[in-house]
From TrEMBL:
<dbReference type="GO" id="GO:0006534">
    <property type="term" value="P:cysteine metabolic process"/>
</dbReference>
<feature type="domain" description="Aminotransferase class V">
    <location>
        <begin position="25"/>
        <end position="394"/>
    </location>
</feature>
<dbReference type="GO" id="GO:0030170">
    <property type="term" value="F:pyridoxal phosphate binding"/>
</dbReference>
<dbReference type="Pfam" id="PF00266">
    <property type="entry name" value="Aminotran_5"/>
</dbReference>
<keyword id="KW-0808">Transferase</keyword>
<dbReference type="InterPro" id="IPR015421">
    <property type="entry name" value="PyrdxlP-dep_Trfase_major"/>
</dbReference>
<dbReference type="InterPro" id="IPR000192">
    <property type="entry name" value="Aminotrans_V_dom"/>
</dbReference>
<comment type="similarity">
    <text>Belongs to the class-V pyridoxal-phosphate-dependent aminotransferase family. Csd subfamily.</text>
</comment>
<dbReference type="GO" id="GO:0031071">
    <property type="term" value="F:cysteine desulfurase activity"/>
</dbReference>
<dbReference type="InterPro" id="IPR015424">
    <property type="entry name" value="PyrdxlP-dep_Trfase"/>
</dbReference>
<keyword id="KW-0663">Pyridoxal phosphate</keyword>
<protein>
    <recommendedName>
        <fullName>cysteine desulfurase</fullName>
        <ecNumber>2.8.1.7</ecNumber>
    </recommendedName>
</protein>
<dbReference type="InterPro" id="IPR015422">
    <property type="entry name" value="PyrdxlP-dep_Trfase_small"/>
</dbReference>
<dbReference type="InterPro" id="IPR010970">
    <property type="entry name" value="Cys_dSase_SufS"/>
</dbReference>
């Protein structure tokens, strides 16, 4: 029996909801997670008592807001074991973070014939920006072949890394397959030829301890809303030496050092990448989420997520007519599946009638769907507030869905 790591009825107000008379079973945390009371309270406190813009005024509210915003950056930095809070750039989310790297670093340092290494499992946010960079610069996209179970082997990586490799951009954990990629080993190979390692941490940072230096990354992108924080806030971490050389891509207030009628110079990192009024409440909410996760323990969350993912994977494989995708072990907290003869959207609709929230579609990973040979899948994804009882509800719903469509 796998119990939740927290008291969900106390910490997460949304789990007190009933839908169609059933208690909510939320199995869509890979899309977005729910928000605990401390996060809601931190944002409410800011808006009610300290609401002001940051880095501008010297009145009390502004100083309180600026202090809270700076503290949020320090909290993020500590959480990912960065060497300096200035390496933490606040963005709107993983998508904007990866676009920032592609547009700023990629446009500045890539030349025609340089190679960008990707995998077919990448989320569109870690694929389309690189396609666009390749069009602008003449760089070439190269893809790592996946093994039959959707994993990446180092031998497959070696076959695509070359002296022309300038960037490798990979997800740490697949949002569809639940596979865990060998980022450290890939980064070693990339660095040997003078390239940089860009990591999409949207699915990994919420679920496991993160140490950017041990990961051997040059850039790491992740989102607040997948780790109990609010929507509209994300992080790009980058090595200081790269951030110092990169040009900003958003121009306006507070990202400048000097402006006259003809020219402008930029502020120091991180301000030069955060033009305009930032998502102050979002950063404060993200810091509160990190404090909440840290109090639970990221090691515990990692073990819990993997246990649920592997339990669900094994259980689904036992049901006749159900196909499950990805590796059996290790398997992270997302499980993609199909049921013979039933469209994933129909599966999700039947599940919703029983208050079971899953996702159906291509999961912003159409090249992976093409590789799998399907148009879409259903996906159940878990977090520390889920339990094996939720998986039991999932299994019952699959059997009921099969009976319904057989009728």
């Amino acid at each position: 029996m796998i119990e939740p790591l927290v008291d969900v009825s106390r910490d997460f107000p949304i789990f007190n909801r009933r839908i169609n008379g059933y208690p909510l079973v939320y199995l869509d945390s890979a899309a977005t997670s729910h928000k605990p009371e401390p996060v809601l309270a931190a944002m409410d406190q800011f808006y009610r008592h300290s609401n002001a813009n940051v880095l501008r005024s010297v009145h009390t509210l502004a100083e309180e807001a600026t202090t809270a915003y700076a503290r949020a950056r320090e909290t993020v930095s500590t959480f990912i074991a960065a060497t300096d809070p200035k390496e933490v750039i606040f963005t709107r989310g993983t998508t904007e973070s990866l676009n920032l790297v592609a547009r700023s670093f990629g446009d500045q340092f890539l030349r025609a014939g340089d190679e960008i290494v990707l995998s077919p499992m990448e989320h569109h946010s870690n694929l389309v920006p690189w396609q666009q960079v390749a069009k602008r610069t003449g760089a070439v996209l190269r893809y790592i072949d996946l093994a039959d179970d959707g994993t990446i082997s180092i031998d497959a990586v070696r076959r695509v890394i070359s002296p022309k490799t300038r960037i490798a951009a990979l997800s740490k954990i697949s949002n569809v397959l639940g596979s865990v990629n060998p980022i450290v080993e890939v980064a070693d190979l990339v660095h040997q030829v003078g390239g940089v390692m860009v990591v999409d941490g949207a699915q990994s940072v919420p679920h496991e301890p993160t140490d950017v230096m041990a990961m051997n990354a040059d850039f790491l992108a992740f989102s607040g809303h997948k780790m109990c924080g609010p929507t509209g806030i994300g992080v790009l971490w980058g090595r200081a030496e790269w951030l110092a050389q990169m040009e900003p891509i958003a121009f306006g207030g507070e990202m400048i050092s000097y402006v006259d009628r003809e020219m402008a110079t930029w502020a120091e990192v991180p301000e030069k990448f955060e033009g305009g009024t930032p998502n102050i409440a979002g950063a404060i909410g993200l810091a509160a989420a990190i404090d909440y996760l840290t109090a639970i323990g990221m090691d515990k969350i990692c073990h819990h997520s993997q246990a649920l993912g592997e339990h669900a994977f094994d259980a689904l494989r036992e049901i006749s007519g159900v196909s499950v995708y990805g590796p059996r072990r290790p398997h992270a907290a997302a499980v993609a599946f199909t049921i013979d003869g039933i469209h994933p959207h129909d599966i999700a609709q039947v599940f919703d009638s029983k208050a079971i929230a899953i996702r159906a579609g291509h999961h912003c990973a159409q090249p992976l769907m093409q590789w799998l040979g399907v148009g879409s899948t259903a996906r159940a994804s878990f977090y520390f507030y889920n339990s094996s009882n939720d998986i039991d509800r999932l299994l019952d719903a699959i059997l009921e869905t099969k009976r319904f469509f057989q009728r």
